[in-house]
Amino acid sequence: MPSLFMSDRRTGKLIVDKENYLYNNHIINEIISRQCKTLIRNYYRYMQAMVERYRNIKFKI
Questions:
Q1: Under a CB-based contact definition with an 8 Å cutoff, are residues 27 and 4 in contact?
Q2: Residue 5 lies inside a defined structural domain of this protein
Q3: Domain membership flag for residue 35
């Protein structure tokens, strides 16, 4: 995979390869959104399990 930043040999400044940057950015966003969806799904399942668990417990007063 080509690198995101290339440096100009004469000036030593960084040059951004725009297309490559956009492509990498897209991939990074995809990965983040997938991880977030998984996290939310897992949290929701966890909360449902907790509700089910506490529904079955009768509190003695």
A1: no
A2: no
A3: yes
